[in-house]
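Aim 2 progress update. The chain analyzed this quarter is reproduced below.
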Amino acid sequence: MADLWLALPLAALGGYLLGGVPFGLVLTRLAGLGDIRAIGSGNIGATNVLRTGRKDLALLTLLLDSGKGAIAALGVRALLGWEGVDPILPVVAGVAAVIGHNYPVWLRFRGGKGVATTLGVLLATAWPVGGLACLTWVVMAGVFRYSSLAALAALALAPAYAWALAAPVHVAGFGLLAVLAWWRHRDNIRRLLAGTETKIGQKSKAKG
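Predicted structure tokens:
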């Protein structure tokens, strides 16, 4: 128990710092596209990177943002040994990575919305739940063409998927991530209700 209480803050700190790496901002600057925060929604995630017209950079941002969530969770298990690691540690590290992406200290706590990073955490800590969440996103995005709506649905259902397929710690962790995602998407929710939200493939109508 003492070892667990020592490992928890270290897992959280490591996850937060890794999650705070702003890959979308770094990639677009390296590509000579300027500051991604000055266009579209102003966020640093893959959806906003796509608004630059660079699908390759958007895909790479998606993979890297997902990857840092997964690495944060899996890294704890790798460092402490794959067998016998308390499942709370990968979940804590993963949740911290999403918080780091959303509120990175490097960018004065102004980051992205954490969808890709959250999906990476789900896949790394409970892959059946992550797979179903990704499938939910794909179906919702394909039917309704709203990235935000697809993300909100996928992450809202993740705790329910975890209830059926994973452990209580996953239900709690994924529930927290769902609440965080809905909070970060509050402007999108307002636009969805008003019918002014930008669809996938359209140019951004509003910042946020």
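The chain has one domain: 2-194. Residues 2-194 form one domain. These observations will guide the mutagenesis experiments scheduled for the next reporting period.
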